[in-house]
Amino acid sequence: MCGSELKPKPHGLTPADVRLAALAKRVLQSDDVPPSPCISICRMSDDTTYCEGCWRTLDEIGSWGQSNVDGKRAVWQLISERLEAHV
Fold first, then answer.
1. Largest Cα–Cα distance in the chain?
2. Could you tell me the residue ranges of all domains in the chain?
3. Cα torsion at 45, 50, 52, 54 (round to 10°)?
4. What is the distance between the alpha carbons of residues 2 and 61, in angstroms, rounded to a whole number?
5. What is the pLDDT along the chain (87 residues), one digit of tens a residue?
6. How far from 3 is each of 6, 30, 46, 58, CA to CA, in Å?
7. Cα-based angle 86, 61, 74 (whole degrees, multiple of 5)
8. What is the CA radius of gyration of the chain?
9. Is residue 60 classed as helix, strand or coil in its secondary structure?
10. Is 17 exposed, middle or buried (0-12, 13-18, 19+ CB in 10 A)?
């Protein structure tokens, strides 16, 4: 790889990111068990170190299944903050 194949994530949100942000808002306002944020776009971004689909770190993805409700809600809060900072 010469580096030209690596394209940094453009500033701004993709349509999938906008949908994820809306879902994050609903999840954080709900008392239900938070669903997984995975949207089956599983690719780690070189410039943000987050998954390009769900905006989680590898550690957050790996520990999701063992996390309790509060831990899952905390990850959703981080996702929301990351998306907001990326606008």
1. 48
2. 15-86
3. 170
4. 29
5. 444 444 455 567 899 999 999 999 999 999 999 999 999 999 999 888 999 999 999 999 999 999 999 999 999 999 999 999 987
6. 5, 43, 11, 23
7. 65
8. 13
9. helix
10. buried
